[in-house]
Specification:
It comes from Amycolatopsis rhizosphaerae. Keywords: Signal. InterPro entries: Trigger_fact/SurA_dom_sf. There is one protein chain. The radius of gyration is 20 Å and the shape is globular. It starts with 6 loop residues before the first helix and ends in a 7-residue tail after the last strand. Strand 8 and strand 9 form a beta hairpin. By secondary structure, the chain is an alpha+beta fold. Helix content is 42%, strand content 17%.
Length: 330
């Protein structure tokens, strides 16, 4: 499968995507930063080498070093190397490919060649942008193109059905409870048994919360939403996440069905951007990542499946994912 795009358009969208991009048991192997099951895929030496290179070559990394924040670069390095391994394996196994000429066209006007300017990049994106630049640029661009290719392959076939409730306020008083804590508590309640979610949602609906049962969303109808954790987990999974950082709302949902095999019929389809296709492609890899038994060395934090990222600690993850007890998992 190949991505077809005009050279200038391809370079523009790749540049945009790259500029926007994005404790379990400890590894037993000495020197491992991350591994699948018992196979080491990222070493501590690899990560440290990338941190050292970033400080040598990128003013933005030196700025983070002055702020004692180079741990962010280390976590991002582990994340990108883990995802690169996953993308490479998937491409080989599923026959996903990109045209080498397209990679060469992007490299000819390499969007990662110039040092990173801290004046034009969201601070939350600095670690990702730094690591992109210290990695092999051909590898980075190929990864992005493969994700777009995968997203394009399934974009018009992917749909999910889910039930959900919402959390829109904190609880104050003598023992305050944050929205995050309330959402996480609901995940635990809804994952207790196969019938629990319906009871929680029914009670929330009676209390005036925004809820829905049997909500079906094809990716072609909501390409931005299709890049969220809901589209990357199997049926029988409960998730809590914030759809948007700009909106003070948490969604707690149980996925009932996930369809990848049929052309979706919708009243109005939305054309995805290349960035959205890459995000969808990444979510399509999430079940495989779970099957491979990813483990992260605790020195780099914990894996956050909601963001497909590393968090410094379990208290800093962006959401929660739990399987419903008593529900068979693939």
């Amino acid at each position: 499968m190949r991505i077809m795009a005009r050279p200038r358009a391809l370079i523009a969208v790749l540049s945009a995507c790259l500029l926007l991009a994005g404790c379990g048991s400890a590894p037993s192997q000495v020197g491992a930063a991350a591994f699948f099951d018992d196979h080491e895929i990222v070493t501590i030496d690899q990560v440290q080498s990338m941190i050292d290179k970033s400080v040598q070559e990128q003013p933005a990394a030196r700025q983070l070093a002055q702020q004692h924040k180079l741990d962010q670069v280390g976590r991002e390095a582990v994340r990108q190397l883990v995802l690169h391994e996953l993308i490479t394996r998937t491409a080989q196994q599923d026959g996903v490919s990109v045209d080498p000429n397209q990679v060469a066209q992007v490299l000819a006007q390499d969007p990662l060649a110039a040092p990173l300017s801290t004046n034009t990049v969201d601070p939350s994106q600095l670690p990702a942008q730094i690591v992109y630049r210290v990695r092999d640029h051909r590898e980075v661009i190929t990864d992005q193109l493969l994700l777009q290719s995968l997203g394009k392959q399934y974009f018009d076939k992917l749909a999910i059905t889910f039930d959900y409730t919402s959390v829109v306020t904190d609880d104050g008083g003598a023992n305050p409870v944050t929205m995050r804590e309330k959402a996480f508590a609901k995940v635990g309640q809804m994952a207790a048994d196969p019938d629990a979610a319906a009871k929680v949602i029914q009670a929330d609906a009676a209390a005036g919360a925004k809820t829905s049962l049997g909500e079906r969303v094809p990716a072609v109808q909501a390409p931005d939403f299709a890049g969220t954790v809901l589209f990357g987990v199997p049926p029988g999974t409960v998730v809590a996440f914030q759809p948007s950082a700009e909106r003070a709302v948490w969604i707690v949902a149980v996925v009932r069905a996930r369809d990848l095999g049929a052309q979706q019929s919708v009243d109005q389809a939305t054309s995805p951007t290349m960035g959205q296709l890459a995000a969808i492609g990444l979510r399509l890899l999430q079940p495989r990542l779970d099957q491979l038994g990813l483990k992260i060395n605790p020195r780099y934090g914990v894996w956050d499946p909601t963001a497909l990222n590393l968090a410094a600690s379990a208290a800093e993850t962006t959401g929660l994912v739990l399987s419903v007890k008593g529900t068979p998992q693939p």
